[in-house]
Amino acid sequence: MRWNLSKVRATACHGPLCALVILLAAVAGPALAQEQGVISLGRIGLRELSILHPSLVYRPIDAFSVRPGGDALGMGGAYLASASGVAALGWNVGGLADLEHLSFTFDGYSRAVGGSAGDFPDSLVLGGRSTLRFLSYRPSLKGGFVPNFIAAGVPLWTSGERRLVAAFGWRRYAEMAVPEQAVSDLVPSGAGATFPIAFSIDRSEKGGLEAFSPAIAFRSGRTLSLGAVVNVLKGGVRANTDEEWFLYRGTARANSRYSGFSPEFGGRVSFGQSVSLGLRLVPGYTLKVRDGAYSRRQQGLTVITATLADYDLTIPAAFGAGVAFRPSLRLLIAADMNTQSWSKAEVKYTRTPPDSVGLPLADVTTLHFGAEYKLLRTGWGEVPVRIGFRTTPLGYRDIGTGDVRLDTLETPQGRWVQATSTGIYSGKQPKANAYSFGASLVTPGIRYDVGFERISYEHSKWFFDVPYDMLLNPEKATVKVKQKVSKIRLSATYTF
Amino acid sequence: MRGRGTDVMIGIVPSRRAFRIFPEARNGRRHMIGRLSRTLALAGLGCLLLFPAACSKRVPLQSGAFEAQQKVILTMKDGRSLRGRIAPGQRVEYRQEGSIYRADVTAVTADSIRLGRVLLLDDGRYEALGRRLADGQVVVAPPIPLLSISRGEIAKVELQMFDGSRTVRSLGAWVYGSSILVMLLGERS
Questions:
Q1: How many separate domains does chain A show?
Q2: For residue range A143-190, what is the model confidence (pLDDT) as tens digits?
Q3: Are A445 and B170 an interchain contact pair (Cβ–Cβ within 8 Å)?
Q4: Of all helices (H) and strands (E), which one includes residue B19?
Q5: Cβ–Cβ gap A448/B52 under 8 Å
Q6: Which of A137, A295, A337, B68 could form a disulfide with A184 if both were Cys (CB 3.0 to 4.6 A apart)?
Q7: Pairing of strands A301-308, A38-44
Q8: In this predicted model, what pLDDT tens digit does every residue of A268-289 receive, in sequence order?
């Protein structure tokens, strides 16, 4: 079968399937090259991808949620000054020096989500004749269990209070996968018996940015601990989107591979038994994004393929500082501040830049507060309980209606492009607060930590995740999505 | 009939020619090997889990009296220890100054416990080395063919029991850790 672009465009109003092809064809514009049943867009950059599949571009790089420890989550992330043992690898590597014996830590979290949108369009018109009325539109992140952290540490040398500790961890370094879904129920408008029709998008994503992290920490006495970790970054994300509207069933696939190298430093200063200060520094580093590909199939046939241009993402330095105060043996109070200027992240294409828009990342400065109280102290162990609070601005700008425009210069039908070529995104940074609590079971040799966090925020999304679609989103509509995310994190530590 | 015969040949004698004719058979064998290796890996993982997870606890016996079928740990006043069932013919573990011996109980009397066939398992090289460095001359783990322990030397008697609670906690930690590992590996495949 041979595709002819003019014929493809001419069949635009014959159904949703063709409408989608038209959209994609319009996006691609003159760059289209045609083969047997395949429209190849060639090498595209973030600008084209933000039109083809906006959710793959409009997302944060979350380097905080992946930090291990149910105890840390229960404290609202106020953990830099009190991080201790193998889990300190993900917080303040200086705390690793507290380790007295060979120890293993395992960590993962489960995410439960719910989302709602109240201002979605009320109807769509099919071919200028019949009308369908939207009964509901429920966009949401997807839940599931995320394996997060495995690490082991062992003291190499001990002399009194001085100690040298080594550790190795395999951990999720940043959350890059943002699986989402949207389901909508529609009914034909007018009189008579009706039956609902469902439109749905279901995007599952696998993978993330992982780090293999050898670390070393030194404790010079009761006062000072210092540590360093070398993160060898690997990983990738595979996104698979299933779409269903009417008889149309399609699949979009996207994948990218990551690699890089990031050192990290941590230190802790303790003033007696009651006050500790913790510092964490991650110098800026470069993340290589390679071998990206994008394809869209319908009814089993490939209709669109594209290669995502390789690029280096220059990630700015991150800094964190925290204080922990222990007024009594049972009570611990802590506060942290973390900051990273994500807006300074730069995209540098390895070959001729297809565009210069960059990523819609935004600066993140978070405040964390937490308290721990040892509820039970018995001969067999102890049970501390925790509460916490943190501010959680998401590290990106959401959809702004000014982000895209119809460019009619090249073709009469027009072509949807990003409104600016300089990478200035017009959306807002989603902001929220998170509340958390948790508890631990600490017994000789074995320790379990569980933490629970609840966060809710509001952000803008394109209706059905397309900036323009002559069937699904003819009005270039955005919806405000209220997102609620509950997270339960469980970590287990085994000490020999 | 020909196809049927060929199928048998592929199943039993997977020759290269057969794989050339039916390349999917090669994949089938790979899948079989994959399933087998996964099963073996899971079995190995299970053994690894059980090893560190099975825990015991020590329950002090205030009276100092113990029975022949009870597994006990006797600690002497000078730090030596004896672990096992103290009855004639039973194999026990004897520890002295960092060295670990395996021995057979030859006789148990009202005054003493006699051990025979005392064989060195581990010479506790680090402790011995430390002493040698400190004292200048130490004979590392001398052989002790026969040994008699006086009951009067026993300072503490502890009953060695299975610690169900700790075993469950430990097993939970390792099962959880293994699950995380398997899931992380699964994400990368």
A1: 1
A2: 889 899 999 999 999 988 899 999 999 999 999 999 999 998 888 877
A3: yes
A4: helix B16-21
A5: no
A6: A137
A7: parallel
A8: 999 988 999 999 999 999 999 9
